[in-house]
């Protein structure tokens, strides 16, 4: 492992440590009495946590050696070796109490739910009053993004707006594809209905041996699905037109406010110029006297 790389950031070190950690915990669960599996697991967890960010090669070498020795002792104790059981019991009795208990985990903090956006509030806040603007008012530009109207205030385009446009375009394309597929199915359904009418006129019985009258047409379900898809496409077009009208009104209002604010800035600038000029004249009069 390179000297400049911290051990806990090395892939080889992490794989080795995790393998030893899991092996020790597995053997601790099978420890025979009088050894307590919970106490042994607490010792393993606390020891690994203590050495988690250690960077000393000597300390880590000794820690790994102790871990593999403990693993051998546990294997022998599980196999019934009395000497290993006695050794582990004696070792546990000499360890401090803090290593033999685990601190309970803190309950995970539940993030506060984000408030859902209220439908239609974004455009209702436009145009913003002058005191809430960080700088001079920027007149937005009405842009048609593949027939979806948007107001562009700044460049580059925000990522959230890009995701919104992409989702809208994907939904529209799905509806268009569904419409084309249903139109193709409509031709097939009409052919099936024509064939059923021919059979009915000839008095041909169906597979059950009876001649059915008032049979549901093949085109019925296709008509309903196609009508639903067409209504969705028309609703999207209506929504885009209404949104474009609202945005045009916002742009016009922004232009009016920008002109009012421009005149106000000009008026204040002229007043400041006249004030400075009056002060300069007053100083000249004082200097003459």
Automatic annotation (TrEMBL):
This is Complex 1 LYR protein domain-containing protein. Residues 17-72 form the Complex 1 LYR protein domain. CDD domains: Complex1_LYR_unchar. It comes from Aureobasidium melanogenum (Aureobasidium pullulans var. melanogenum). Residues 264-289 are annotated as: Disordered. InterPro entries: Complex1_LYR_dom, Cup1-like_N. Coiled coil: none annotated.
């Amino acid at each position: 492992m390179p000297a400049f790389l911290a051990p806990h950031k090395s892939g080889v070190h992490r794989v080795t440590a995790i393998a030893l950690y899991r092996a020790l915990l597995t053997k601790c669960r099978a420890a025979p009495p009088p050894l307590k599996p919970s106490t042994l697991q607490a010792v393993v967890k606390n020891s690994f946590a203590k050495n988690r960010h250690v960077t000393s090669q000597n300390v880590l070498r000794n820690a790994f050696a102790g871990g593999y020795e403990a693993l051998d002792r546990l294997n022998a104790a599980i196999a019934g070796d009395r000497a290993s059981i006695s050794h582990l019991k004696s070792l546990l009795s000499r360890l401090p109490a803090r290593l033999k208990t685990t601190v309970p985990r803190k309950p995970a903090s539940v993030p506060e739910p984000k408030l859902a956006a209220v439908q239609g509030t974004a455009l209702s806040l436009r145009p913003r009053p002058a005191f809430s603007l960080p700088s001079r008012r920027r007149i937005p530009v009405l842009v048609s993004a593949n027939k979806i109207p948007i107001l562009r205030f700044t460049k580059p385009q925000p990522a959230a707006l890009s995701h919104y446009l992409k989702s809208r375009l994907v939904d529209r394309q799905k509806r268009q594809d569904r419409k084309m597929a249903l139109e193709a199915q409509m031709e097939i359904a009409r052919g099936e209905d024509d064939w059923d009418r021919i059979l009915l006129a000839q008095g041909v019985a169906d597979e059950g041996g009876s001649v059915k009258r008032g049979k549901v047409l093949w085109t019925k379900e296709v008509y309903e699905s196609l009508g639903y898809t067409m209504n969705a496409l028309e609703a999207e077009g209506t929504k885009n037109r209404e949104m474009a009208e609202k945005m045009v009104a916002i742009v016009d209002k922004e232009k009016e406010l920008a002109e009012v604010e421009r005149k106000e800035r000009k008026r204040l600038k002229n007043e400041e110029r006249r004030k400075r000029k009056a002060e300069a004249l007053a100083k000249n009069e004082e200097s003459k006297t």
